Every structure is written in structure tokens, then in C-alpha cells.
Amino acid sequence: MTFNRWTRRAALLLASLTVLLSGCTTYVTTQVTAFSDWSGNDASRTYAFTRPADKQNNLELTTYERIVANELATHAFREVDTAQAHYLVGLSYGIRSDMVTVAQPVYYNPWPAPYFGRPFDPWGPWGPWGPFPDAYVNQSYPVFTHLLGVRITDRATGKEVYNVTARNQGEESSLVRAMPYLARSALADFPLGNGVVHTVKIPLVKNGGVPNEVAATPMAAPATPASAAKVVQ
Questions:
Q1: Which among 67, 29, 31, 33 is positioned nearest to 162, based on CA atoms?
Q2: ∠ CA 77-81-82 to the nearest 5 degrees?
Q3: pLDDT recorded at residue 69
Q4: Global pTM?
Q5: Which residues of 138-172 are buried (b: 16+ CB within 10 A; e: fewer)?
Q6: What stretches of 171-211 adopt beta strand conformation (E)?
């Protein structure tokens, strides 16, 4: 009777964990820092990309410009020829790899087989009488830092009017796959106030792309949101 009761409880516990895990959403979290002297209006939001001389024919930069252009378009920016542009937009980007070492516990089971390894092990890490950390081992794994900077200047005067940097970290080793999240985060709630630092969370899409949902958590007084992004206080 007792065994059956524990079996039912274990089954309910595993079912609950399955439901909870299936409903979990993984987010890409990006820190955004903005410096702003923005006073433009929708009618004047014409721009052209500007490049350094050594990247005039750079395909990687072209790819990132298209990603950023899509985000600028959501804020009423229109890409035109340089001679007709009110603003010039320049991009900077990069990726860095670091090794992180974490101490992980090693668990042991005081009951030998056949009790160990059953569907519900009360002495295991998830059991009511566990866990039993016997020791810790150091495990190292790579962490990648992705960076995108967007600089907007007035073409006529050369004055910088907006400079925003987006930075995130994770296991993603490809900058091109991280770029849509960086671009979306960098331009979320455009234009931000001067000196604003906030965190933007975007749900991770497994098959690529970036979803429409964006949540921004301000760390300083933000400007009035110019997009439909949700701000979480």
C-alpha cells in the first residue's frame, strides 16, 4: 500500500515537472547602453549606411546592415542614397570567447543496485532523502560575448545624435546568429534618453529569426517608448 502511494506521488511529481518544463521559455538577455541627443522627427528619418574605407565591399557588414535596416524601418527610418540622407548610420561589431570554470557537485547513492536507477530514486538528487554531494569537480566551458554598436550622425553637420551599444553573452559561437537579437535590442524603445542603461529580453527562437515579443527592463530613467516593446519595471 505504501509502495503504491509513493508510486502515485512520484508519477504526479514527474508529470508536474514535465508540464512546467514544457512551458518554459528561454530568453536572450542583452544589456543596452544609449547616449542620445536626438531631436529628429518622422519626416526627417532618412538615412544611409556609412562604412570605413577598408570595408566598402565587406559581405559580413552588408549582412548586418540589412538586419539593422529592418529594425530601423520599424521606427519610420527610410534608407536612401547618401546625397539625400538626413542621417548617416555606422555599425561596429565583434565577438569574444572566454572560458568559464564552474564547480559542479558529484552525487553518490548510499543504496547499491537494484535500488539505484529506478524511475523514482528517493536517494537521488531529486528524492526526498537526497541529494548527497560527495565532492565537487571543476568543469570549464566557453562563453561568447557578442557586441553591436549603432552610431547615427547628422550628415550635414557631422554631429553625433545617437549612439547605442548592445551586448550579450551565451553559448552561441556565431555572431551572425546573435545579430538579430542584438539589433532588435539595440533599437528597442528608440529613442532612449541620454545615458540610459537597460536590459532587453527576447524569447529565443530555435529555428532562427527573432519573435515580435520584446521586454525591456530599464536601469535608468528611460525615454518614452517609441515602439510597441513591453517595458517591465
A1: 33
A2: 95
A3: 98
A4: 0.69
A5: eeeeeebebbbbbbbbbbeeeeebbbbbbbbbbeb
A6: 196-203
Q: Pick the closest to residue 72 from 56, 51, 83, 88 (CA basis).
A: 88
The set of cell numbers assigned to 82 is 547618401
* 75 grid coordinates: 521606427
Number of neighbours of residue 78 by Cβ within 10 angstroms: 14
The residue ranges of the chain whose pLDDT is under 70 are 1-25, 107-134, 207-233
Position 13, amino acid: L
Classify 181 as helix, strand or coil: helix
Q: Is the dihedral of CA 72, 76, 81, 84 positive or negative?
A: negative
Q: Are strands 133-154 and 87-107 parallel, antiparallel or unpaired?
A: antiparallel
In the numeric block, the cell 570595408 is attached to: 55
Among candidates 215, 210, 163, 200, which has minimal Cα distance to 67? 210
Q: In this predicted structure, what is the pLDDT of residue 205?
A: 81
- Are 142 and 173 in contact by the 8 Å Cβ rule? The answer is yes
Domain 25-100+142-231 sits in CATH at 3.30.160
Q: Give the full edge-to-edge strand order of the sheet including 78-79.
A: 78-79, 46-49, 87-107, 133-154, 160-170, 27-36, 196-203, 215-218, 230-231
pLDDT in tens, 75-108: 999 999 999 999 999 999 999 998 777 787 776 5
Give pLDDT, residue 229.
37
Q: How many other C-beta atoms lie within 10 A of the C-beta of residue 230?
A: 13
Compute φ and ψ for 10, nearest 5 degrees: -65, -40
